[in-house]
Amino acid sequence: MQRIRAGQSAPAARKAAFLDRDGVINLDRAYVHQWDEFEFVPGAVDAMRRLREAGYALIVVTNQSGLARGMYTEAQFQTLTARMCEALAAAGAQVEAVYHCPHHPKGKVPELAVDCDCRKPEPGMILRAVREHGLSLEQSFMVGDKPSDIEAARAAGLGRAYIVQSDNAESTDGLAGADAAYADLASCVDALLKSA
Ligand SMILES: [Mg+2]
Ligand SMILES: [Zn+2]
Predict the structure, then answer these.
(1) Rounded distance from Cα 194 to ligand 1 centre (Å)
(2) From first to last of its 196 residues, what are the pLDDT tens digits of the chain?
(3) Considering the domain boundaries, does residue 192 fall inside one?
(4) Counting C-beta atoms within 10 Å of the first and last residue's C-beta, which end of the chain has fewer, N or C?
(5) What is the value of pTM for the model shown?
(6) Total domains present in the chain
């Protein structure tokens, strides 16, 4: 455990962009688990590069109930994640961490068929990332395409939460409790960096 001595201040917490994956970074084709079905949302890669250049750590927080449902394996998920991160890094959009929830209470894989504290709208993934990466809740924000993404951000106490549209059935063109709604990540980042 790291101790802070009296008179010595803790290292400043960094700001982060918490991004949902499916419907925000890549097109939500339902249970995407292979690279050949993974397609970046137009403008998303460049938007992530711009966020990083503006000083935001990029943190992906993604519900992957397909794991609990037995539709794909942890190894397949990790392989896809590695390829996604490689492609993003090659474009100057290095992701600092990817957190995923493999659980679902109605899953088929016994050890993953649990009520957990990480499946959004629970805030577990966000809170864990904040702890493990020294991030500021107040200076950070979440971008998601479902009300549950916004609820997770609120439950964690993130400074701001934005909703974008996607093809997912749970996507909404309303605010869903968010601070603002945008067509996609690119237009969200346009607005954020313009007002910064
Ligand atoms: Mg999504
Ligand atoms: Zn979970």
Answers:
(1) 25
(2) 555 555 555 667 899 999 999 999 999 999 999 999 999 999 999 999 999 999 999 999 999 999 999 999 999 999 999 999 999 999 999 999 999 999 999 999 999 999 999 999 999 999 999 999 999 999 999 999 999 999 999 999 999 999 999 877 777 768 889 999 999 999 999 999 997 6
(3) no
(4) N
(5) 0.92
(6) 1
Asked if 36 is an active-site residue, the reply is no
20 is an active site residue: yes
DSSP E strands in the chain: the ranges are 16-19, 57-63, 97-101, 141-144, 160-164, 180-182
The range of the structural domain enclosing residue 65 comes to 16-170
- Bridge partners of 40, per DSSP, are 26
| CATH number of the domain that residue 107 is part of | 3.40.50.1000
Ligand 2 center from residue 166 Cα (angstroms): 23
Whole-number Å distance, alpha carbon 117 to ligand 2 midpoint, is 6
